[in-house]
Design brief:
This protein has about 260 residues and is mostly helical. It has helices at about 15-30, 40-50, 50-60, 60-70, 85-100, 105-115, 120-140, 140-150, 155-175, 180-195, 235-240, 250-255.
Length: about 260
């Protein structure tokens, strides 16, 4: 999929690049102390030293600036863990999501982008593509787990990650509550138990673990027996017996309140 081009980014060098950098930096700094509703083109012009007419010409509105800012700043700064264990990976990922959105500027950036998406089609496309791309990137946690035999090979990897993140965005945008330790633990543990018990199985004969650690498709020329569809661990047995078994065994069936 071709990523929507954000406003103001058509010419990456020279004056355009300097103007873009100044305006996006001004917007990000403003979000440290102000919410999205208080941002105006004139405010960004004063903070950035860029004429308001230039901002309106290149971004059209504050929503356009926020869309561009999200493509640059976004959620890609949240690290993707690789502990060698799915449960630990999901707890670490949940903690990283909470930490990222606890920062006022990141929380306000998300709120601003959602508000922008409700007003402008371009912003909606940017938001959708950014989160779709991020799901594909973080889904590598499940691809690795499938290769290790921790989850069935036909697990919907992106579905598990969406289930992990959903409680955070509900808390951020709907109930407006804190992203506390209980939310981190319960979100990670719920996603983990659902994954290992086969809740996210697709029923397909091929594996959904179709990307490598860079998020790019695995080569179709991979040697037979080395791909994620050929796992020989307990999850392979899970796939054969209808999802009744998994590596974690009785431990996974018991609620676990550990923190990532």
């Amino acid at each position: 999929m071709t990523e929507p081009r954000p406003h103001g980014s058509t010419r990456p060098g020279g004056r355009t690049a300097r103007t873009r950098a100044a305006v996006l930096a001004a917007a990000l700094e403003a979000l440290d102390t102000q919410d999205f509703a208080s941002l105006t083109v004139d405010l960004l012009a004063r903070r950035s030293g860029v004429h308001a007419a230039t901002i309106r010409r290149r971004w059209r509105s504050v929503e356009g600036v926020i869309s561009d800012l999200l493509t640059q700043h976004g959620t890609a700064t949240i690290p993707i863990p690789d502990t060698g264990d799915l449960r630990q990976d999901l707890h670490a990922m949940a903690r990283a999501i909470a930490d990222f959105h606890t920062a006022p500027r990141n929380r306000r950036l998300l709120e601003g982008m959602v508000a922008a998406a409700s007003r402008q089609q371009g912003a909606e496309e940017v938001l959708r593509e950014i989160f779709a791309r991020r799901l594909r990137q973080v889904a590598v946690l499940l691809h690795r787990a499938a290769e290790r035999g921790e989850v069935p090979a036909d697990t919907d990897a992106e579905g598990v990650i969406a289930a992990l993140g959903a409680p955070f965005y509900y808390r951020l945008l709907i109930t407006r509550g804190p992203l506390d330790d209980e939310l981190v633990s319960s979100s990670a543990e719920t996603a983990y138990l659902a994954a290992v018990h086969g809740v996210f199985r697709t029923g397909s004969t091929g594996s959904t673990a179709s990307t490598d650690s860079t998020g790019s498709p695995n080569s179709p020329d991979s040697p037979a027996g080395t791909g994620p569809t050929t796992g020989t661990g307990p999850a392979a047995g899970t796939a054969r017996n209808g999802g009744r078994g998994h590596r974690a065994g009785d431990e996974a069936a018991r609620p676990h309140r550990g923190r990532g």
